[in-house]
């Protein structure tokens, strides 16, 4: 359904002020076909169903019929690359791109494209000019992967210009520049390396983020955006239905709203191995609340599973940077926080061979999980048994992986250590 109701603990009034009372809000979720494939749009938190219905109708019309500001035919011959791209990225981006992708497009257009070819008239842009631009970018030390991304942006933008008859051909498709291999993506951790890593961070504030990222494969924004209202310890399951908003302002204490995730209705079981981590995290936060309030401090209750000691949200940039410091300090092989997700995907697939269920656990499309694992994405290759992935099957796959990490003599001894936790790491701003 395009419109779904949801119960919140602290509903806001028409002015956006929290009422302190529970209530029902409405979320709009639209799936539509865009020129470059299937897309989805979501906006959450409408106070009334009437408002949600009106917004849904307006956006459905806009998304299915994207409108670009018309360019006068007499002026189109004088239109510069800068004028076109400034217009295109605003119209195309707001309607079709995720906030993080939109920000990336704008940044690359501003920093790499416009300084080199922004002054060129759109109709006079040639593949040779683009090849020359990429050579200049390479001379500045820009990475191959970044240049490839710039070419992708130009290719999409110029294809839109061709379809709107601003230009006859797409110059970005005819360049002769060959991009070298990008920097090697770090290898995901093996089961033994995950076990070693877990033994080093157990009892620290990194414990729960690593469990969610490395044992469940959550994205970093999903990790720091998971809220207790979406965790059911009684049923031993949690839902990944929202994430931390992109580019959270520094110093934010209270969240106005969360951002939707890429996948809907993603419910994951809490395994017997993972349950103690959830319990310890809940008890830790209860102690933090009590100590802070006893000392006269203010606790900013955002209901987050991963939060700073005063309850305020963590920023993805900070967690990502601090994770790098942690890896170096613990002398573990270099990976990024996002590579914990690749680690979970690879290990679950190697242990079970269950291509489809791993994809459902990670919230990937079938194509996405295939690309991540480097295997076929042919639907015919997926056993019919897994077309409807049940929670029980997810639990089997997660149980297999989690037990492989923990069920050894070495890990058993680690779990039976004295109850006093290790000294907390100071590398993460929580």
How are the secondary structure elements laid out?
Blueprint: E1 3-8, E2 23-34, E3 37-46, H1 49-64, H2 73-76, H3 81-96, H4 99-117, H5 127-139, H6 144-163, H7 191-201, H8 207-215, H9 220-223, E4 231-232, E5 237-239, E6 242-243, E7 259-260, E8 267-269, H10 275-294, H11 316-329, H12 339-352, H13 355-362, H14 366-373, H15 391-406, H16 409-415
Helix pairs in contact: 3-4, 4-5, 4-6, 7-15, 8-12, 12-13, 12-15, 13-14
Walk me through this protein's architecture.
This protein has 430 residues and is mostly helical. The chain has three domains: 3-64, no CATH class; 73-173, DNA polymerase, domain 1 (Orthogonal Bundle); 191-415, Intergrase catalytic core (hpI Integrase, Chain A). It is built from 16 helices and eight strands. The chain has helices spanning 49-64, 73-76, 81-96, 99-117, 127-139, 144-163, 191-201, 207-215, 220-223, 275-294, 316-329, 339-352, 355-362, 366-373, 391-406, 409-415; strands spanning 3-8, 23-34, 37-46, 231-232, 237-239, 242-243, 259-260, 267-269. The strands form three sheets. It has a three-stranded antiparallel beta sheet, covered by helices on one side. It has a three-stranded antiparallel beta sheet with strand order 4-5-8. The two termini are 37 Å apart.
